[in-house]
């Protein structure tokens, strides 16, 4: 079918607009901060093959194009004939969905003139699905899905427009905040209805054949755009590795992340076979997110997402891998390692595209702030939740950004201090950048954050450690790593803050907790950083005068201006000291994640591939 | 009485004057003089011939506030905050709206970290003092800021919306220690929770304060110097005007005063013609803007981001809700790397401009496409003062678009226009359909140089049956300023269950806000006060502003307020939950001081319209041109009827009527178009 230019363009604009309108409505009507602030949801239209027609932009990135498996599974379960107008399916089962149980998917079949053509889908993070799931999810120590929470496997909560009252009551009685979550379910359903209305208008206007032909062409063009980017990169195999200190259950046993990327012509293969096998700890998942988020960021970060976005990408993850775990491997902390996986893939490509790869970022889905309890005066349950950003890596042309959420999170906002205190009995004593938490470099990393919270009533904290102590956010091309994050607690009467880990830790009133996020790695040799910039960083209090001297070789006068001749002398001295120890690992004891990060690119990339 | 409005835009300063005794309009245009804006105004006044001493009121809108911010030419500013919150302004909300972009940028703070100083004090959300204010820490901060030579200071303490006492005390200390600095206290600017947004709004105010405040004072005295004795009013983002004194204290309120004039004018024109529900559609050189007006009232958004959501500065003051798309006459048509045709957001602007402007432009624009389609008359642009290069336009469209797409040049031009129509329609949809309003219940009011050219096509796309092309469509913003009322908006965060909210307390807050409003209003005698409560279902974050009246508050009529909320929620989101508890977050007060209503003169009746000529142009189909009648707008009398296809030309724009569109000229001069084929 021949499509005219205008019709194609109109449909191209309309499809993402529908998904985004669904998202805007969901967000504004939801009952839990995981949706309205953390934007931990995705809204999408899929066809009956499970191919992604369009998805919202701006929310959590690791949901990219991950709903297709649920459509194929649902069709296997019910058959194409098994769906009726007015059906609403609810599902979160890990055998297929592969994420923590809080991520509840609601979807509805879409019929045009009686024919099943699409599914409208909304995945959203419920604040609780029973078990240990309160808040951001149950964390890595939960042994299995039954302990984690309620499992819902492709169930019709509405059948032909009629509510399944039994199922509804089972859900209601087995979750902790039913008004919130069932309110969210209502919003998810409303978003699906909205999408159906919009698609009706579009189908009425252009007809089925035109729309389906346009979708096919949009997929093909999107794929071509990605291929155009990849074909610019030199063919070859690129590898990098990183690690998580341990999984929280097998203490001290490192979780390796090894990536191998092959570029051949316009095809890219991301092979994650070298990553850890599935673990006893609940950091397993079934997801292509690590590979896809990285590929998207490199091939077309500002373009809408559809099935074509990943057709030129092959992802290899064998069954039994930590990211292709088999039910009932626990998955409640499913996304914890994903930002590090994305970063490692990006780092592997540093040689292929040196001008487009930053140093490592904090790599945390947290700093998650989770403190909850029962208010003694009002007898109401409360839960403090916020996600604090950390430092991003230095870039090939500028400094990294401070205090910003990870690569797996987009328009995810921290809780405002005043908003938190209006709802919950705590005092947020400070939210500040942590001096010297950034990696040094010609372009330094961004800074991490310390958030300090005092509780005015007793309650429980979740401290989910970041476990990047042995592999902190790495530097690139001679930059140094950023400082990792963590959690600290000072109980009443104690004088010092102590490192903390664990979930549901009871805390008496008037304790203080610090949620600490990591800084980003530096890019390039710190000795090449302009001394005026170093002096400015000291004047701004972002780095200490000591760091200026030790890491950057910059000597400051009393008025904070750089002493150029002293600086030159010091930098010369530091350079020759480096030569003397050239045999030693360049970055000291820190294990440098991306092998590519150790030395300068030999030559600029030659443009076209050979 | 004589009223004059002066609108300073990026390129031109527009003036419109109206004498309600004689019913006559005066117009003038002069080049904007960025270095000396008030001189530009004086020049424009001189050119208009209006005697300054005869002017009763001069209303002024200017881009100075937004430009000072965007060009970062504001004052050296210090920020004083609660201990522990020094970095809140830098960290903001920590978000990255461009989720896959590894090279995203955040907002660029206007105050350096070393000029952000913490003082010892802490309030709780209830307003209770948790730690008292230590004046010595304020004095120490003053000393440091003074030594650094700051010209402006912003103060923002946590929970000052609930209890402003600490900010007031600190403010007094700062005033005493640093006489002459420009001072903004957050509770004076915005009394609403969410500290980052309040800090940002307050900092923006302080940052632009000295320059904009100085400008307003300077303007007042220059006008006085040429004999002006009337009232000076300043246009603000909420669609109202304010006195120069208020503008000097709260310059952030005039940030977006540019586009709002046209929206106010759309509301008034619509109402006068019996259309309370209109959508204002303004298309200029680089962007198109749509805004919804219901029952004669523009819709207000509670805040916006200067410089865009992804990396802009939040300013949480009410502004007229406008959706903007990068589609204007100068928007460039281009092909992406897989050959798909795109239009905008890049614009050829005024320099070099579209190819047909002969300014050296080489990329085909929407204006060039309209020339190729014959809808714009190359010999009659800007009243014939500027000859357009039709051949150049055709060459550009052919070479850059038609050939690569293997299209006929006319079909390519049509495709460029159609794609931009579609994008603009999405903007109109966003202000209507996406908010629960059916555009078919609205009339579309077109303004801007390119608005009347495209409006009928947009109306057809959205099945909007009526289109209005007002008088002075290319001076519409200045016209709107003549019609704007005085308006001040106030907010107080009052966090409570609706079931247990203390209505006596609300009534007290209401009275307090009314008192504050009266102090700011010039015309306070017949002022009108509108109350809204920001409500939500318990557990939600986003609120809906529900209009209530004072009687409901005095009677503690929870039930009526509750059902008004449920109804509004149902309208906006198509579902609601009558059994769930509702909580209140803010109380808002809009104070409106009525300005004199102007009665514009009517046209003499003519009965029939005589074309000034005929021209071949392409309308609905690019396959073959139609011969259309061409009319001069100033030759049309009241009651004249025109059927499409037709082109109605005037100085700054051309109205395009398609086949089956019919147009009637109203007594007051507007073109009222019934769109053919609309349902």
Architecture overview:
The complex is a heterodimer of chains A (610) and B (679). Chain A is α+β, with helices and mostly antiparallel strands and 610 residues long. Chain A is built from 13 helices and 20 strands. Chain A has a domain at 5-224. Chain A has helices at 5-29, 33-36, 68-78, 145-148, 165-173, 178-206, 208-230, 289-299, 338-348, 417-423, 531-539, 545-550, 564-580; strands spanning 41-47, 52-55, 88-91, 103-112, 115-125, 155-159, 162-163, 236-244, 255-264, 267-271, 313-316, 368-374, 381-387, 426-433, 449-455, 459-463, 486-490, 498-499, 502-507, 512-516. In chain A, helix 1 (5-29) runs antiparallel to helix 6 (178-206). The radius of gyration of chain A is 25 Å and the shape is globular. The two termini of chain A are 37 Å apart. With 679 residues, chain B is an alpha+beta fold. Chain B has a domain at 486-593: Dna Ligase, domain 1. In chain B, strands 13, 14, 15, 20, 23, 24, 31, 34 and 35 form a 9-stranded mixed β-sheet that branches. A 6-stranded mixed β-sheet of chain B has the order 3-2-1-4-11-12, sandwiched between helices. A 4-stranded parallel β-sheet of chain B has the order 6-5-9-10, with helices on both faces. The mean pLDDT of chain B is 91. Chains A and B meet through helix 1, helix 6, helix 7, helix 8 and helix 10 of A and helix 3, helix 7 and helix 12 of B.
